[in-house]
Amino acid sequence: MSAQPIINLRPDYKVADINLAEWGHKEIAIAETEMPGLMQLRQEYANEQPLKDARIAGCLHMTVQTAVLIETLVALGAEVRWSS
Q: Residue 78 in contact with residue 51, Cβ under 8 Å?
């Protein structure tokens, strides 16, 4: 008996209402202007990828501020998994 990879055709995430995506992107853009520290980190270190090979998991209420944090971690090279 050989080990076969498990193929899951369903996504491992759930979007409550995809119709709100455009609004959410606008809210995230507003939050980015209110979080200059994270934006500065992205600007200074994105090319260096200091979090490359880092695997970060989190469980926190999903807010636009949380989204900015997650996007910053990804921009710095981390592999991020999140639940809320």
A: yes
Please compute Rg for the chain using Cα positions. 16
Digit-coded pLDDT (tens) for 25-83: 999 999 999 999 999 999 999 999 999 999 999 999 989 999 999 999 999 999 999 99
9 domain residue, yes or no: no
Q: Is the pTM of this model over 0.85?
A: no
SS3 77: coil
- Bridge partners, residue 55, by sequence: 79
Distance of CA 42 to the CA centre of its chain: 13
Q: Smallest Cα–Cα separation from 58: which of 50, 49, 69, 48?
A: 69
Which domain range does residue 56 map to? 18-83
